[in-house]
Design brief:
It contains eight helices and eleven strands. With about 240 residues, the protein is of the alpha/beta class. The longest helix is centred in the middle third of the chain and has 25 residues. Bound molecules: uridine-5'-diphosphate (UDP). The site of uridine-5'-diphosphate has 21 residues, from α3 and α5.
Length: about 240
């Protein structure tokens, strides 16, 4: 059983369906409420200390949306997007009765606490879910690196990389290749060498250097998140 866990959520998990049925955009209160319920129910009675890093891809990705802009500015816009997501998730989680704190890497005193490592740990010890917004507070990174960095800082046992409709890691994209082979476990080095899709290379290297286990799993498969919190094997496990 895990004591402390870092859960990485993509910003897209908060988006509603687009009017044309394609990939969603923005923040849907209904979708966010469903996700919050799923997390609170999974957590109930487990005693697991949970920290969440939320991405911003539903609103803005520096490299995709900021074409023609100063790349650093484009990335800062992306980081601000993650704070919006963090606030939406906080609102939805507190509506389920789960106390939370949003901590932002970019100071925004009116809406979020500043990220202070020891304070984050204190919140976790008190049973609050800590939601990290603002990424690393530095451009040229993604929230994958934030997940790894914060997990190491707070002493998390594992990084849970939540996916939608993908139940773990394959040797190629199962949505494009019907012969894609499922991978149950792999070492960090194998993931690097085989270029398996787990998280971006900077984040993965940090996990490898610090020996931090990663689980890639489908968060929307009923029961998966709770089983993980209880220490059961779900999805693909990456460890050294
Ligand atoms: N970002 C950044 N530094 C960070 C984290 C995020 O510059 O430490 C910016 C970057 O532009 C990124 C955007 O914020 O594209 C949204 O984050 P991400 O793409 O990781 O979101 P996700 O795909 O997980 O929803």
């Amino acid at each position: 059983m895990f004591k402390r866990v870092l859960l990485k959520l993509s910003g897209e998990f908060l988006a509603g369906p687009a009017p044309d049925g394609s990939g969603g955009f923005g923040i849907s209160p209904e979708t966010t409420a469903q996700l919050a319920r799923l997390i609170t129910e999974a957590l109930e009675g487990t005693g697991v200390e949970l920290a969440i890093v939320i991405g911003g891809g539903n609103l803005w990705r520096g490299a995709r949306n900021g074409k023609g802009m100063d790349p650093a500015t484009a990335d800062y816009i992306g980081m601000l997007g993650t704070v919006m997501n963090a606030m939406a998730l906080q609102d939805a989680m507190e509506a389920t009765g789960q106390p939370t704190r949003v901590m932002s890497a970019i100071q925004m005193a009116a809406v979020a606490e500043p990220y202070i490592r020891r304070r984050a740990i204190r919140h976790l010890e008190k049973g609050r879910v800590v939601i990290f917004g603002g990424g690393n507070g530095a451009p040229f990174f993604t929230t994958d690196t934030t997940s790894t960095l914060r997990a190491l800082e707070i002493g998390a046992d594992v990084v849970l990389m939540a996916k939608n409709k993908v139940d773990g890691v394959y040797d190629s994209d199962p949505r494009k290749n019907p012969d894609a082979q499922w991978i149950d476990t792999a070492t960090h080095l194998e993931v690097v060498e085989r270029r398996l899709e787990v998280m971006d290379a900077t984040a993965l290297t940090l996990c490898m250097d610090k020996n931090l286990p990663i689980v890639v799993f489908d968060i929307f498969q009923p029961g998966n998140l709770r089983r993980l919190f209880l220490g059961e094997r779900v999805g693909t496990l990456i460890q050294s």
